[in-house]
Amino acid sequence: MDDRRIQRDAWMAALSCGLAALLAPGCATLDTLPIIGSHHGPPPPAESGVLLPDGTFEPAVITDPNSPEGRLASGKELFRQGNYAHAERIFHRLGKNKKHPIPVLEEARFLEAECLRMQGHYPRAADTYVDLLNKFDRTQYKEQAIQRMYDIANYWLDDTRNQMREDRERKEGKRWFVSPIFMTFDKTKPFLDREGRAIEKLEQVRYHDVAGPLADKALFMCGCVKFFRNDFSEADYYFSQIHERHPNSELAPQAVELAIISKHLSTGGSDYDGRKVAEARMLVHAAFNNYPELAENKKDFLSRQLVGITLQQAEKDFKVAQFYERTSHPGSAYFCYEIVRRRYPGTPYAERAGERMTDLRSRSEEVKPASWWDSIPTLPEVKWPWQRKDADPAPRPELAPPPKQLPAGLLPPSPSGSAPGNYIP
For the whole model, what pTM was predicted? Predict the structure, then answer.
């Protein structure tokens, strides 16, 4: 038993010495070590090079296959041959070493994401695209990375689309329940919360290219998902962003229509904050003025929304007036009832406000009966002595003493030679 232990300790010491020698200064680094379980990359292809803007091809001269450029070219050759697993490991090593040139790091990071995508590892590929955009915000692969992220997020929302279709069938009476979304073991989808991860990637698509061609589509998809989940405040945010930042988008009219509904449903009624209802009124006027297709095709819908907004605002102001009347502030209540009557004519609340104003006016004009409080004698008014009727009307003497006059011998002579004047200290 002791012999085995001694032999094991000897093997561990030898292995430690070997690793220390490999990692010693001046020796090989981790990038030059072979990948476990795979062979070395192929030599760089002879046709490697750069395509110049004028259309000419400049061949790349790679003298050292073990240099970062040489290993990058080897990974590209493996990618071209379809060996994505081996190429992905090479690109991952290149992208993790920050001592390599920036062009090598940028291209290696993008090609690593491409290898993951080609293997079907969409969650890891999407995160790698985001890492590329975060580290290289002006990368030449920005457009391709954003398109890949959008496609992956769109693919992850297929289950949500199926739920939308099943929910519509349930409301029509064609089915009894909607299939829930649980975990999945498919490598192309996240293990949990596919919908949340899809919205996250769509928000990142919009963040990294605010004015790009996919920004409005990403916002619209996020808004539709939140609207389906009855999260109307979040849906209102996404749809309003399309109206504010992408007014010329082909999705803008539909986004304005859904934003009006979301604002109207996210308030909670007239007992809550009325700013969203006021914003909905502004959106209705914007739809009439800026979107002719909505003004023509959705005129009845916009008119009904405007009526609903008016009734909700009238109810809110009427309840404010009722609050003042209930707390014994008839003047404030009368003022608020007058606001309701003038702002919302023709509504039931305007008629009720007029009735309450008449009642308040009649109660204020009634003569109140004398109460026991009025029979209590009041104390006489306290006045200062000089405010009484028997006070002396003559002016009061000055409180300060008169100026002192020095003896004649101490007075200084006058400059004009006349008699010396008074000296006032």
Answer: 0.68
pLDDT digits (tens, 9 = 90+) for 84-104: 898 889 898 888 888 888 888
Cα 229 from Cα 222, distance rounded (Å): 11
pLDDT in tens, 254-264: 999 999 999 98
